[in-house]
């Protein structure tokens, strides 16, 4: 009887080892898969971050161009006839249209960037839950890096928007105070502190 019992026990050993082997294999496959996911989402996040930063930079340049035109107009005020004033404001209008187009572009890319950011955060969490610690740490570090990069560029654009709001307010007050030669309706959008060309954060 002892011999029979020992034989049964020995026969059971390979089965346990096989089950452990399968379990280990599954864990390894999951970790490998989640690592590939974090790599892919990080690549997507990098690409959308680059595109967003570029678009924000172009928008900021467009805002400063408009600020510069306001200042130029202010310096020339009183030195131009009505036709010259009209010509200058055609340039201003063109600059505002260009700025608005660049604003819409960066807002579109910002939406894509935020989606990529959420995907990366989900991938990092999945990596952590599956035990792929290195993949999780790497993904989270990358997320923090791109967030800081975007925030830095956002601050520059917000500074430009503040400069533009100041220039528009100054011109509006001047127009109200001294019957400016400004063409009718040019500053209408800045009344009551509203400017559709400035984004609310």
Account of the 3D structure:
By secondary structure, the chain is mainly α. 84% of the residues lie in helices and 0% in strands. The longest helix has 75 residues, at 2-76. Mean pLDDT is 81; it is low at 2-17 and 184-201.
Envelope shape:
rod-shaped
Beta-strand content estimate: under 5%
Topology order in helix (H) and strand (E) letters: HHH
Structural class comes to: mainly alpha
Helix content: over 70%
Query: What is the count of DSSP helices, taking H or I runs of 4+ residues?
Result: 3
Radius of gyration: 31 Å
N-to-C CA distance: 82 Å
| Mean residue pLDDT | 81
Q: Please describe the biggest sheet, giving its number of strands, its sense, and whether it closes into a barrel.
A: none
Report the strand count.
0
Fold topology:
Layout: H1 2-76, H2 82-130, H3 133-177
Helix pairs in contact: 1-2, 1-3, 2-3
The gist of it:
This protein has helices at 2-76, 82-130, 133-177. By secondary structure, it is mostly helical.
Provide tags for this entry.
mainly alpha; 3 helices; disordered C terminus; 201 residues; disordered N terminus
């Amino acid at each position: 009887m002892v011999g029979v019992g020992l034989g049964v026990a020995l026969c059971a050993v390979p089965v346990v080892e096989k089950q452990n082997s399968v379990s280990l294999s599954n864990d390894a496959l999951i970790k490998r898969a989640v690592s590939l996911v974090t790599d892919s989402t990080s690549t997507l996040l990098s690409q959308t971050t680059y595109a967003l930063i570029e678009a924000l930079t172009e928008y900021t340049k467009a805002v400063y161009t408009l600020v510069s035109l306001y200042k130029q107009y202010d310096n020339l005020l009183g030195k131009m006839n009505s036709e010259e004033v009209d010509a200058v404001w055609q340039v201003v209008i063109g600059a505002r249209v260009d700025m608005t187009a660049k604003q819409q572009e960066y807002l579109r890319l910002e939406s894509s960037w935020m989606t990529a950011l959420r995907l990366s955060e989900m991938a990092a969490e999945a990596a952590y839950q599956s035990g792929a610690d290195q993949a999780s740490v790497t993904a989270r570090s990358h997320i923090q890096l791109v967030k800081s990069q975007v925030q830095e560029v956002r601050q520059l654009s917000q500074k430009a928007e503040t400069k533009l709001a100041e220039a528009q307010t100054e011109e509006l007050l001047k127009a109200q105070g001294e019957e400016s030669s400004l063409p009718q309706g040019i500053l209408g959008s800045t009344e009551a502190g509203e400017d559709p060309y400035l984004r609310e954060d």
